Amino acid sequence: MAPQSRLLPPLLQVLRRCRASRSHFSTAPSLVSPPSKAVVYDEHGLPEQVLRLVDVPPAEIGDRDVCVRMMAAPINPSDINRIEGVYPVRPPLPAAVGGYEGVGQVHALGPAVTARLSPGDWVIPSPPSFGTWQTYITKHENVWHKVRSDVPMEYAATITVNPLTALRMLQDFVKLNPGDAIVQNGATSIVGQCVIQLAKVHGIHTINIIRDRPGSEEAKNKLKQLGADEVFTETQLDMKNVKSLLGALPEPALGFNCVGGNAASLILKLLKQGGTMVTYGGMSKRPVTVPTSYFIFKDLSLRGFWLQKWLNSDKTEDCRRMIDYLLGLVHEGKLKYEMESISFGEFSLALEKALGKHGSQPKQVIKF
Question: The Enoyl reductase (ER) domain covers which part of the protein (predicted)?
Fold first, then answer.
């Protein structure tokens, strides 16, 4: 068989001329992906101990498969939790490839692919799919969704997990009208930044809570530049008449909690009568404690949101429409958030930063 580097171009030319007729490929050599490199783990544990870089041999590209050259993929907290074995949904072991979202470029198409894809198109796994921390991925065409290529690749790589969470929470729990308000903790997170900007697009006011820490004034200014109406530290809200701080803003009907503990209690204090708090994370690892009076006299509701469950409820087309909408906002300059790009060759450093070993860091995005 000819070397792979000389084999792929002729086959791709044949695919472009003759994709409609499978008989043209009956005697041709199998179409295969290039060899790949991947970050894998064989057991659950501390990521810095169980992750390893391996060479992956070429994979056969089936009739309806699409081979994608990955360009970028983030390290999300949920990726870390999967490796540690504490996330509810995990890839099978051994040799599980890390990563759950990312963006790549179509490298080759199987002869019976019906999707409107061409080599060079940008695609993301949608809904997200295990195994994005590798240089080439070959999967069925149904996995891939073509996205616009006129946005920074870091945004295409990270558009699903965090921005989509923000969008769904704004739409799924309380009917909000222009002029209404929401309150959230964890406002400096990517979800928090997205909530601020998406709310602004729809005329919704945001009241934002951040931790007391060095640089909090700078963080406040950054969030206000994104469109935040008010930003408070937890200490500022540790007072009895907390609603006096809202000024002319309406009492929020909806709150988002990703921290737990005291930060969740502050949201409950600010919510209006009959309000709803949605919990989608627990960064402090402390429980949500609710005074009985909040249930009896304020009639508050507590809900939870998990994007994975929403995606598993046959929402593929809805998901893809919203991805296109969100990337459109990115293109228009109406949606942005902090990230740091780092090369695949420096994965260990990116992992250390994602684990907080270098202090608070932006989202780490691996560029292949």
Answer: 45-366
**35 touches 57 (CB < 8 A):** yes
**Burial (CB count within 10 angstroms: exposed 0-12, middle 13-18, buried 19+), residue 301:** middle
| Contact (Cβ atoms closer than 8 angstroms) between residue 132 and residue 160 | no
Per the CB < 8 A criterion, the answer to whether 130 and 96 are in contact is yes
Q: Of 87, 155, 280, 294, which residue is the catalytic one? A: 87
Strand spans (E) along 174-298: 181-184, 205-210, 230-233, 254-257, 276-279
Q: What is the mean pLDDT of residues 339-359?
A: 95
Domain that includes residue 131, residue range: 4-158+338-367
Tokens at residue 227, please?
């469109």
Kindly state the tokens that stand for 262. Answer: 């005291």
For the sheet containing 301-304, what is the strand order? 230-233, 205-210, 181-184, 254-257, 276-279, 301-304
Compute the average pLDDT of residues 129-142.
Answer: 96
337 counts as catalytic: no
Kindly report the number of other CB atoms within 10 A of residue 20's CB atom.
8
Helix count and strand count (H, E) for the chain:
12, 16
Task: Return the structure tokens found at 236.
Answer: 């500022």
- On whether both 8 and 153 belong to a single domain, the answer is yes
Q: Does the pLDDT at position 305 exceed 90?
A: yes
238 and 299 in a single domain? The answer is: yes
pLDDT digits (tens, 9 = 90+) for 263-283: 999 999 999 999 999 999 999
Query: What tokens appear for 21 in the block?
Result: 């007729």
Question: Mind spelling out the 3-state secondary structure of 223-246?
Answer: HHHHCCCEEEECCCCCCCCHHHHH
* CATH number of the domain within which 98 lies: 3.90.180.10
Q: What is the largest CA-CA distance in the chain?
A: 79
Contact (Cβ atoms closer than 8 angstroms) between residue 46 and residue 351:
no
CA distance 202 to 176: 9
Q: Compute and round to an integer the Cα radius of gyration of the chain.
A: 23
